[in-house]
Amino acid sequence: MEIRDRGTATLWSVVWLALAATLMVALAEVGAAARDAARAQSAADAAALAGAFDGFDGARDAAQHNDAVLIEHGWTGDRFVVVVQVGEVARRAVAVRGLVPARRGP
Question: Are the C-beta atoms of residues 66 and 43 closer than 8 Å to each other?
Fold first, then answer.
């Protein structure tokens, strides 16, 4: 090995470690955003269903139960529409008044 090549492996190791760390942080951010989006949609669905049966109080309680904030709510004809937020992600859901899921079993 020549004298001028000394330390090259260390330099490349540091560069690759920095790139790997940056990639890990970026992937963590993307994962957190995806998690918040899924949680927000679940909370919106629950809030819309609860709102269709219990009005604002049911929608608010369902959103809070799912660690979400109820941003908008209201009736459009026979549809209860909500928008909830989890973190920085907002999602919308609609439930129709009077539709009841079929019961399973006896």
Answer: yes
pTM listed for this prediction: 0.73
pLDDT in tens, 22-67: 999 999 999 999 999 999 999 999 999 999 999 999 999 999 999 9
Distance, CA of 39 to CA of 33 (rounded, Å): 10
- The owner of tokens 């001028």 is 4
3-class SS of residue 71: strand
Half-sphere exposure of 70 (CA within 13 A, CB side): 23
Q: Which domains does the chain have, with CATH numbers?
A: 3-96 (3.30.1300)
Rounded to whole angstroms, the Cα distance separating 68 from 41 reads 10
